[in-house]
Amino acid sequence: MATNTLVLLLNQNYEPLNVCHVRRALVLIDKGKAEMVENGAGIFRTTSRIFHLPTVVRLRYHVRRPLPMRRLTRREAFIRDKYRCQYCGNEVRPLTLDHVVPRVRGGKHEWENVVTACMGCNHRKAGRTPREAGMTLLSKPTRPSTTPYSLFVPYLESRTEWRKFVFAD
Ligand SMILES: [Zn+2]
Fold first, then answer.
1. How much is the pTM?
2. Ligand 1 midpoint to CA 76 (Å)
3. How far is the CA of 61 from the centre of ligand 1 (A)?
4. How far is the CA of 102 from the centre of ligand 1 (A)?
5. Å from CA of 11 to ligand 1 middle
């Protein structure tokens, strides 16, 4: 069995909640905590039973869960900035994180003060503000929003059967 097959986990009200491995989905079903909404990932046989492998399952109870905050990491910042230096616009590796207002000048380590920068631009800007360095940001850095949509969208290219649950209105 392909235990790493991914399953879309829906809340009781059919809102997409998470993505889990098929093994966890089967455990949830087996314990009566979830029900199969769609199968189609094939079957799994034991000596005595045949299981249809789910692609979508729904919890039988409602989970209240706030949307996770995006943690400010290098990777998340690069993703937000689409792996593009926010000063010169190039996608030159290696990329670095630049504090727009340098930390030694009181700039905070927060989404609104951090941008992706190539080594060259980071070095040129050094301990100055963009204005002092005569450099312009491509866009004002903001905290990326987290929506159910943004959580599931990376999967929708390959998991077309999930789309109607993610985009349900
Ligand atoms: Zn650059």
1. 0.54
2. 18
3. 49
4. 16
5. 43
For the segment 94-126, what is each residue's pLDDT rounded down to a tens digit? 999 999 999 999 999 999 999 999 999 999 999
Kindly list the domain boundaries of the chain, sorted by start residue: 1-68, 74-133
CATH number of 74-133: 1.10.30.50
- How many residues belong to the chain? 169
Cα 33 to Cα 5, 25, 68, distances in angstroms: 20, 9, 23
Structure tokens at 20: 């889990």
Calpha distance 159→40 (Å, rounded)? 11
Distance 94 CA to ligand 1 centre (A): 10
Cα distance between residue 125 and residue 123, in whole Å: 6
Q: What one-letter code names the amino acid at 25?
A: A
Q: Are strands 34-45 and 50-59 parallel, antiparallel or unpaired?
A: antiparallel
Please write the tens of the pLDDT for every residue from 120-152: 999 999 999 999 999 999 999 998 876 666 778
